[in-house]
Amino acid sequence: MPGGRPPPGTGNVAGMGGDRTEISAAQARRIALHAQGFAGRRPAGRVDRRHVRRVLDRVGLIQIDSVNVLARSQELPLFARIGAHPRDALPRMAADAELFEYWCHEASLLPIDLWPLMRWRMERPDGVWKDIYAIGRDDPGYVRTVLEEVRERGPLAAGDLSDPGERSASMWGWSRGKRALEHLFWAGAVTARRRPSDFARLYDLTERVIPERVRALPAPSEDGAKRELLVMAARSLGVATLHDLCDYHRLNVPRARHLVAELVEAGRLRPARVEGWDRPALLHPDAHLPRRVDARALLSPFDSLVWDRARTQRLFGFRYRIEIYTPVARRVHGYYVLPFLRGDRLVARVDLKAGREEGALLVHAAFAEPGEDALTTAADLAAELRAMAAWLGLGAVRVADRGDLARALAAEVAAAGVG
Predict the structure, then answer these.
(1) How far apart are CA 62 and CA 93, in angstroms?
(2) pLDDT surpasses 60 at 10
(3) pLDDT tens-digit series, residues 376-394
(4) 407 touches 377 (CB < 8 A)
(5) So what's the pLDDT on residue 133?
(6) What is the full DSSP assignment across 122-180?
(7) Which of 98, 76, 95 has the alpha carbon at shortest distance from 354?
(8) What pLDDT does 308 receive?
(9) 3-10 contacts at long range (C-beta below 8 A, 24 or more positions apart)
(10) What is the pLDDT of residues 302-348, one digit of tens each?
């Protein structure tokens, strides 16, 4: 993986010049993959915190998800870009106050110096979910009591509160105490880290977690923070539509439209036109177009390269839906399906599970994308699965006979002696 920032300027982007840059569909894919950190080689030696920082310098944030059928979702974007790495890298960086958790693109880990850019969101309680907003409005005394208990006894999980209340019947089953803590978390009065045993949030006072030097930094205005977030999104995406830019940090599109126009006027974003896109595009001034991309990676459903499903289809012609919440009989590809990136295309998808009792990486199903060569795809996918199994401490890869790629993949795995 290349270190540091991409080369300045857009001299390598074809069609540069005039008021609007013309970009082919293939060029857009390569620009996006470079921006997301897939255009260079993985480290050959020991992977350490410096490599993780470089990934974060590219992607800006990593989405958190509790699903652990394969590995914690936030571990997978690192593996996709830098290969085998210490699995406790992100928790250790959070413990050392290099990273913090907040609602950004869903629950996310962000570099600590971005904390001031989230202050505007903390000061807008109307942006939070209805139940979390309601408890602050309707039961402020209880919320204050919870805050005082965190002050006296924190860090605390919701279940550690002296009066957590009953769990609700909603999808998440949050108790009154959990909703109060989430209200305080959104508002920035408390922050959170994760308990290793069950991944639950442990809430503590913000001043005990976020370093004073960071809390003392001036917070930009709401518009000023959004401008910076939009430019950061453009840098991480390379080339994007207005919707793409806003989705990256979950900004409201109508409220951001005039800010994007201002950024274009200031030269911080460039107008572009991408072949096949039905909406105008925007290009970061530092966007770089590599001659080719030779990536090989399994992508988490929550990886920033593919988390926007409409963009994924627009960039790669790859229709992707996560089927965790789909009834079994209606699933097309499986429960926890990862796209497989080879070169600059998404060429396959595999339903994976870490079979910890069996000591094997289980491939429940494997499907090739239309038009892809099954033998070449299977050989590269088998190599990536072997690397993932080794990283997860699993001694074998076992391929079930489901999907049009399964037979070729099983043969490649068997030939390598890891089946």
Answers:
(1) 13
(2) no
(3) 999 999 999 999 999 999 9
(4) no
(5) 85
(6) HT-GGGS-HHHHHHHHH-HHHHHHHHHHHHHH-SB-GGGSSS--PBPSSSS--BHHHHH
(7) 76
(8) 97
(9) 3/50, 3/54, 4/54, 4/57, 5/57, 5/286, 6/34, 6/35, 6/286, 6/287, 6/288, 7/286, 7/288, 8/285, 8/286, 9/285, 9/286, 10/270, 10/283, 10/285, 10/286, 10/287, 10/288, 10/289
(10) 999 999 999 999 999 999 999 998 999 999 999 999 999 999 999 99
Task: Please compute the mean of the pLDDT values over residues 136-150 and round it to a whole number.
Answer: 95
> Quick check: 108 and 73 in contact, CB under 8 A?
no
Q: What is the 8-class DSSP label of residue 218? A: P
17 versus 375: the higher-pLDDT residue is: 375
- Cβ(304)–Cβ(59) under 8 Å? yes
Dig out the tokens for 408 from the structure.
Answer: 């070729």
Q: Which residues pair with 156 in a beta bridge?
A: 203
Neighbours of 134 (CB within 10 A): 13
Measured in residues, the chain has a length of 419
Which tokens belong to 6? 């991409």
Structure tokens at 326: 């789909």
